[in-house]
Amino acid sequence: MNKEKRTEIFSRLRDANPNPTTELNYSTPFELLIAVILSAQATDVGVNKATDKLFPVANTPEAILALGVDGLKEYIKTIGLFNSKAENVIKTCRILIEKHGSEVPARREDLEALPGVGRKTANVVLNTAFRQPAMAVDTHIFRVSNRTGIAPGKNVLEVEKRLLRLVPKEFLMDAHHWLILHGRYTCTARKPKCGACIIEDLCEFKQKRDYQ
Ligand code: SF4
Predict the structure, then answer these.
(1) Which residues form a coiled coil (predicted)?
(2) CA within 20 to 30 Å of 141's CA: 9, 110, 154, 198, which one?
(3) Whole-number pLDDT of residue 210
(4) Of all residues in the chain, what percent carry a pLDDT higher than 90?
(5) Is the pLDDT confidence value at 211 over 90?
(6) Mean pLDDT across the stretch 147-159?
(7) How many CA atoms lie within 13 A of 22 on its CB side?
(8) 110, 138, 161, 193: which is the annotated catalytic residue?
(9) Which residue has its alpha carbon closest to ligand 1 atom 8?
(10) 197 is known to lie in a ligand binding site
């Protein structure tokens, strides 16, 4: 795919949604970090249901630590893998208090050292909370990048590196939100809605289908 096409794709995605953001509910970097940890293999809707009750009661490392693992589980028990997530969140809160003055660090190495935080979670926090041009490649971004030809790659790291290199600078900050939303609602895994897709004429996918 050439640069002109990529620029046109992101121009259209931006025109359709000028201020994209995560669908997770949060109001501070700490809330975002906890929501993203909880969202592994879970839906944003499911996480929001839990955090809508948790955050009014506890939205600081100290307050969540005070709940303890069992207290926290009561709020997040509807989310998959809640046992291990509760353990990780409590350990993360303790580290934030002891090493980072109760703040969420804005450095990748510090984020990835937190229990339950991998490269993808760190990328979401760096991009969404700290507005750094990081690219959190999830299943939607991986699929859309490969199908369209925007940034094909065999694995998520390859796609992440290509996107960072190939997405035109002016779109880099918000590209990951546009790609996630496009994959979640239009370029869906099994039934892409190619007939209703605003980048259909630019997309290089060879098996376009319309499952509208
Ligand atoms: S045309 Fe189809 S395959 Fe291409 S991006 Fe749109 S929905 Fe996805």
Answers:
(1) none
(2) 110
(3) 74
(4) 89
(5) no
(6) 96
(7) 28
(8) 138
(9) 187
(10) yes
Average pLDDT for 87-108: 98
197 lines ligand 1 (CB under 6 A): yes
Tokens representing 117 are: 């935080």
- The phi, psi pair for 193, rounded to 5°, reads -95, 65
Domains for the chain: give ranges and CATH numbers.
Answer: 3-20+137-196 (1.10.1670.10), 29-128 (1.10.340.30)
